[in-house]
Design brief:
Largest sheet: 2 strands, antiparallel
Low-confidence stretches: none
Oligomer: single chain
CATH topology of the largest domain: Arc Repressor Mutant, subunit A
Structural class: alpha+beta
Distance between the termini: 46 Å
């Protein structure tokens, strides 16, 4: 197709990969917020913040609504936030905040 096409394609794929990571993270944030306090952003400040973050990265509205619907489903795995503390080499303190549905897998 040509060199210019290859450059444009590379830029698009790089941007799309970055957007996919952001959308996945925000989707998980939305699911956790809905599981915690319900699907209404008027009463759920954490969901409101997650929706503002979704809007900031131009996440499509249908993806946000799908995440809320998915979280409202009772068969969905329940993610919980866990904080791990430890020390790295040379005495550097490490604090890890993670969201998981299986703590054993996360620790391993």
């Amino acid at each position: 197709m040509g060199r210019a096409f290859e450059f444009r394609k590379e830029r698009k794929f790089k941007r799309w990969a970055k957007m996919a990571v952001q959308f996945t993270r925000i989707g998980k944030d939305i699911v956790m917020a809905v599981k915690e306090s319900g699907p209404h952003p008027e009463t759920n400040s954490r969901l409101r913040t997650a929706m503002q973050n979704a809007k900031a990265v131009n996440m499509p509205k249908d993806r946000v609504e799908a995440a809320i619907k998915r979280a409202s489903d009772k068969s969905m795995a329940n993610y919980e936030e866990i904080v791990y503390e430890g020390y790295a080499p040379h005495g550097v303190a490490v604090l890890i905040e993670t969201a998981t549905d299986n703590t054993n897998r996360t620790v391993a």
